Amino acid sequence: MSTSPDQAQLESLPTLGASQIIAYLRRHPSFLNDHPELLEILLPPSAQSGQSVIDMQRFMLERLQREVARLNGAHGELVAASRSNMTTQAQVHAAALALLEATTFEHLIHTVTADFAEMLDVDVVTLCVEATGGPPPRITTSNVYVLPQGTLDKLIGHGRDILLRGECAPAPAVYGPAAELVRSEALVRLRFNSHTPTGLLALGSRQQEKFHPGQGTELLQFLARALERSIRAWLDLPTG
């Protein structure tokens, strides 16, 4: 019968006696700490073999208990994150459906700037659009603002479509009187088409870290794309 390369390699290694292994472990007392996977294959000694053996069992048991506690903690965090994501997903889907139920363009704007705050569990939601030139006109609609041209690149960054900030000093031009409440925010660029000014969907929360850079952005981007399409449809804008 032929010998496999791995088996041949193992057979070529020098054989160590018990005294050599014990001497090595004495010189390297952290060996099992550095190689915890060995605990899975070591045979636990009998509890009747003396106090030193009981200590060894305790060491192995404590190691396994710590590993179980770590896995339980990771599992709990995963479950919590999954529940949070499902909640957020349901909120965003409800908001997208609310866009479809708008009966007029004014109703659509009211849905975004008034109803979205409760639906998405935030404190303020605003819609902004960049002026095409000259001083921005004054808008009397609540939570709708016109920003000077180039503002969105300064706020979000050139070439970026979304910004999440866990601790921020929000721009009053974006939130108006509600700016002093905002401690974290999500800013999402709105692109209606290549011929119209760029817009902004801003979500602000008084809770720090409600939004933060480590969060996924897929759901917010989905909501922004749904809003873009709704506005295009009501204003009869071309898609190109």
Strands, helices and their partners?
Elements: H1 5-12, H2 18-27, H3 31-34, H4 51-100, H5 105-119, E1 124-130, E2 144-147, H6 151-156, E3 162-165, H7 172-175, E4 184-190, E5 199-205, H8 218-235
Parallel strand pairs: 1-2
Antiparallel strand pairs: 1-5, 3-4, 4-5
Task: Summarize, please.
This protein has helices at residues 5-12, 18-27, 31-34, 51-100, 105-119, 151-156, 172-175, 218-235, and strands spanning 124-130, 144-147, 162-165, 184-190, 199-205. It is of the alpha+beta class and 240 residues long. The longest helix is centred in the first third of the chain and has 50 residues, at 51-100.
Distance between the termini: 72 Å
Low-confidence stretches: none
Count of discrete domains: 2
CATH A-level architecture of the largest domain: 2-Layer Sandwich
How would you describe what is shown here?
- The protein is an alpha+beta fold.
- 48% of the residues lie in helices and 12% in strands.
- A hairpin with an 8-residue loop joins β4 and β5.
- The termini are far apart.
- It has eight helices and five strands.
- The protein is elongated.
- Strands 2-1-5-4-3 form a five-stranded mixed beta sheet.
- It has helices spanning 5-12, 18-27, 31-34, 51-100, 105-119, 151-156, 172-175, 218-235; strands spanning 124-130, 144-147, 162-165, 184-190, 199-205.
- α4 packs antiparallel against α5 and α4 packs parallel to α8 (218-235).
- It has two domains: 17-101; 104-235, 2-Layer Sandwich (Beta-Lactamase), CATH 3.30.450.40.
